[in-house]
Amino acid sequence: MNKFISGFLFLLLAISCAKNKNPNVLRPEVSHAKWDELLNVHVDTNGMVDYQSFKADEGALDNYLKLIASNHPNENWNKNARKAYWINAYNAFTIKLVLDHYPVESIRDIKKGIPFINSVWDIEFISLQGLEYSLNDIEHKILRKDFDDPRIHFAINCASISCPRLHYRAFKASVLEEQLDLAAYDFINDPTKNIVEMDGAKLSKIFSWFRG
Question: How far is CA 192 from the centre of its chain?
Answer without folding.
Answer: 24
